[in-house]
Amino acid sequence: MPSPSKTLFLALAFSLGLAACAAPTAQNTETSLQQERQASEQVVRQLEEKNALMKDQRLNTYLRGVVNRVARERPPGSVPLKTYVVRDADVNAFTTGGGYLFFNAGMLAAMENEAQLASVAAHEIAHIDRGHVQAGRANRQGVQLGAAAAAIGGSLLGVPGDLINLGVGLGANYAVNSFSRTQESDADETGIQYLAAAGYNAAEGAKSFAVLRRLYGSQTGAQALFFASHPSSGDRLQTLTRRASELGATKGRVGRNTHDAATRALRRDILKFYNSEGRDKEAQQIRRNLRR
């Protein structure tokens, strides 16, 4: 029998039809951004009600610093960003549009250095700036972010523990965004330009996909359904490594020591959780990071 989070994901995925967006990008407007902000605030409130947002000041300050470093390279007038760390051990990040970025605790722990985390941030920021959330709303025949937010809230009910699987990752990411392969590739390209301009080693940042391939290279069930709509991690790693070279961004900031210092306590807590849940691949990645 599928887990509650997988059941939620399957229901959302099929209700949205798994259809690629007809138009990969759209023009963000004040009206569309306001709608996204209102729905995103609903997501934040529901996560706060379930104590699902991490309040660790050092961790949140570090993440905001990484996001802000990337955000300085965005076009003038871009929507301001808000970042949150979700108390979820799954390795994922997502945006609900309107400038809201959510990073699962598992993502911060699994990334090997700051350049990789910045690569994830740049990708999600690009989804916002390129109008992918707005384009998706126009092609979902009335399915609104508020409905997705309500589903997220339902998936949190009765879940114990400090580090939990909220169903926010795969389920909410698809329900809120339904990004197509074209949009994912577009966000990869825009994101790596942001990353290079911010002075990061974009070739090292691209290795975030090597981490994801190591963890989730072989998918089954709901995860296979989700990843079928995305370019493969291996293909993206190759493409972005080549682009990093073309952009002259094979050197620059990696930030391993800074990232290790900011995430060490979190990694130890998550490792305990993975060990208790028998999640061996993820535990192996965290042990690898702690040994560095």
Description:
With 292 residues, the protein is mainly α. The chain has a 3-stranded mixed beta sheet. It is built from 15 helices and 3 strands. 50% of the residues are buried.
Strand tally is 3
Task: Write down the overall mean pLDDT.
Answer: 78
Strand order of the largest sheet: 1-3-2
Shape: globular
The number of distinct helices, counting runs of at least 4 residues, comes to 15
Largest sheet data: 3 strands, mixed
| Strand-pairing-aware structural class | mainly alpha
Order of helices and strands: HHHEEEHHHHHHHHHHHH
Return residue spans where pLDDT drops below 50 for at least 5 consecutive residues: 1-22, 140-161, 167-177, 218-229
What is the straight-line distance between the termini?
38 Å
Helix content: 55-70%
